[in-house]
Amino acid sequence: MNENKKLWGGRFEKSTDEMINEFQASINFDKRMYREDIEGSMAHAKMLAAQKIITDEDCQKIINGLNDILKQIDAGEFNFDIALEDIHMNIEKVLTDNIGEAGGRLHTARSRNDQVALDTHLYVRRQTAEVQKLIIALQKSIVNAAKKNRNVIMPGYTHLQRAQPILLAHHLMAYFSMLVRDFDRFAGVYERTDIMPLGAGALAGTTFPINRQQVADELKFNKLYNNSLDAVSDRDYILEFMSAASILMVHLSRLSEELILWCSREFSFIELDDAHCTGSSMMPQKKNPDVPELVRGKTGRVIGHLMAMLTTVKALPLAYNKDLQEDKEGLFDVIDTIKFSLAVYAQIIDGLKIKEDNMLRAVEEDFSNATDLADYLVKKNLPFREAHAVSGKIVHDCIARNIYLKDLTLDDFKKYSDLFDEDVKEAIKPETCVKNRNSFGGTSYKQVEMQIEAACKWLDSRRN
Known about the structure:
Blueprint lengths: L17 H7 L2 H4 L3 H17 L5 H19 L12 H13 L1 H4 L7 H37 L4 E6 L2 E7 H26 L1 E2 L15 H7 L4 E2 L3 H6 L2 H27 L7 E2 L18 H24 L13 H24 L2 E2 L1 H9 L5 H10 L4 H18 L8 H5 L9 H4 L2 H7 L8 H17 L3
Parallel strand pairs: 3-4
Antiparallel strand pairs: 1-2, 5-6
Helix pairs in contact: 3-4, 3-7, 3-9, 4-5, 7-8, 7-13, 7-20, 8-11, 8-20, 11-12, 11-13, 12-13, 15-16
């Protein structure tokens, strides 16, 4: 395409180098915003007509022409031209070719700077709502798994060492709580994306008597940018989306790490569904947890996009700079990655096979009940530090004898303290250890049931 045929080519005599055309073009990735671009242009045209800036006839031609282009793109019949750089100019050029002079009036009182800002706001707003729906779907899977396994006891860990007996449902509900915070973070992203930038022009507004509120109402925006410089240069909402996405992926990565460990032979707590694993080309016995590993790996990619975007905007003077074109490829990849990760994790949780006996055996054949042994003595009025020392000495001696606390007789216990009685055996059973941790938010059967009930109410309150 010759420079004078470009929509901005009037000032130029020399054509842009073909390599530069390719370097600066964004159509290969921003064409996914075609629906938002057309939606925004329709709202803009209606406003121009309502303000008598263009005629009603031209407005109708524009809307009909844009609808035709929308159908063409939906059907895969639209030819995107890299020489036209981006989705905005591709659509406008074809519109003008199709409907004539009226198409050339669409860009009145508008710049690509506020147009691309509008498209991105619309796109991020829609994607944020979709991410929230996927978070809820995963939360439902977690709650269902917690309900099905509400009485399964497993080791709780600190430092990846067995610490205290907990309910598997309690462990699962911890991830539900993380996802509540993720949901709320995206709610904040939605709020700060729900601001309408169109009408800011290139940076300083426009000389035409536009009605920005009409466009905001048409596109269902809650607020308007009140500063035109800020409107075209703001990318905070993208940074916030990427930040919320990074924290979300960290949560999924932590869950991935645990599932990878738990399905190993060394733990053997769970088995992943065959549909979510692959085998080895050499070793016929292998069942590899590829999906959790990929989610764990893609976490670094999402965080990387956030770091790249922060670096891009950190020293940009107001208002628009071409650097800001770099906001989209990373954003689109982040969106695709978190949406896939959330969707596939709902399936993974639904397909988990829990090896209940192995989990229980793990807490019966260790010393995760040592804290409860110390608590037993405290309840007999021994100061905790002394009780801790007695319990630690008993554990030390059991390890030397290659036995566990459950193997000790009452006479054995009394060698360490006269405060021990027959009820000590009951006090250190895994079921008792779990049941007695009834402080708010604890792992007791009652508290976990309360967590599940609260989670169900939370989910019900978010039904659309």
